[in-house]
Structures are given as C-alpha cells and as structure tokens.
Specification:
With 182 residues, this protein is mainly α. It has six helices and three strands; from the N terminus they run ααααβββαα. The protein has a three-stranded antiparallel β-sheet with strand order 1-2-3.
Length: 182
C-alpha cells in the first residue's frame, strides 16, 4: 500500500523545493509586511513538517517495495535487495531471510547465525533526514505557539484590566506590549 503513496511523495518533492526557493526569494526582496517574521517562522515549520512526512512516506514505500520483491515471484528468495548489496559470495551463502522495520525504516538481511546486515545504506539517510526535519519543525513550532499563548494572555489581561477613559482595546494592548499608540 505504501508503495502507491511513495510515488506522489516523490512527485511532490520538486514542488516542495520550488516553494521553498520562491519563499526565500520573496523574503530577500524589499516590500515585506511588518509581521513577516512570524509568518515566515510558521511557514518554515509547516514546510519542515511536510518534508519529514514526505521523506517518511518515501521510505515506507521503499521498505514495502523491497518486502514485496522478496515475497513474490520467481527468484524472490533470498531477497533481491539483499543480493544486490556489496557483500561477498560467502555471506550470500548464509543468507536465510530478511527483516523489515517501519520505525526506524529498515530492510535488513538475516544470516543463518542470526546476524543481520542492511540491504541499503539509503535507509539511514532517510531516517536521519526525516528526524532532522521533524525536530526542525518541532523547534520552529515552539516560538509560534509561545507567541500565540502570549498574545492570548495579553488579550485577556487587556479585556480584564480597567482602561483609561476614552481608550479602547487597541490602546490597552499597545500599553501592555509597550508600543506607541497609533
């Protein structure tokens, strides 16, 4: 099933790259809004999360494809992924099966003594990049969430605090955030 999801994820990667490049160019050009930094931070968090999900789906598809190749058809045992790696013939003589893992992404080849070796080192890259993008998204979301909570607390404080006669909610927020009145 994940093999079918991997193709759209693979096609979405160039679109994601173009979107990131266009956004960074728009940030570099003059004429930005005053609140561009918060929006950019939110956008970067969303793009990092999208990259993490896309890479993980690609990896799921790769693991599923390797598992499917090793379980059906002629010449499926030992797994083609295990035979195509750079191992010597004596190791291939002891190959008895394979083991899949989805967290972390892995397709390991099992030898008759119980030891394993990875069918591809690409899974390590996918796992590392997925984790890096996921952590980046989490780190970028924290300031956005903190900003949201701070703003909500300030709005509650402004609505609960008695304001000077003739001043509105906006003037009260300006006083709380120490901004000059508009």
């Amino acid at each position: 099933m994940f093999v079918f999801l991997a193709l759209p994820a693979l096609l979405a990667i160039p679109v994601w790259i173009v979107a990131v490049v266009v956004k960074f160019i728009s940030v570099a050009l003059p004429g930005r809004r005053a609140d561009w930094s918060r929006d950019l931070l939110r956008w970067c968090a969303a793009m990092a999360a999208a990259a993490a999900v896309g890479l993980y789906v690609l990896g799921l598809g790769a693991v599923q494809l390797s598992a499917h190749e090793s379980e059906s058809g002629a010449s499926s045992s030992p797994a083609p992924s295990c035979r195509d790696t750079d191992v010597d013939d004596s190791t291939l003589q002891h190959l008895v099966g394979h083991r899949t893992s989805y967290v972390p992404l892995r397709f390991d080849c099992v030898l008759d003594d119980g030891t394993t070796y990875p069918s591809s080192h690409g899974y390590a890259w996918l796992n590392g990049l997925t984790a890096a993008f996921g952590v980046t998204a989490g780190v970028l979301v924290v300031p956005v969430g903190t900003s949201f909570v701070t703003r909500r607390v300030a709005l509650r404080a402004a609505s609960a605090a008695p304001l000077a006669a003739g001043s509105g909610l906006r003037d009260g927020l300006d006083q709380i955030f120490h901004r000059p009145p508009s």
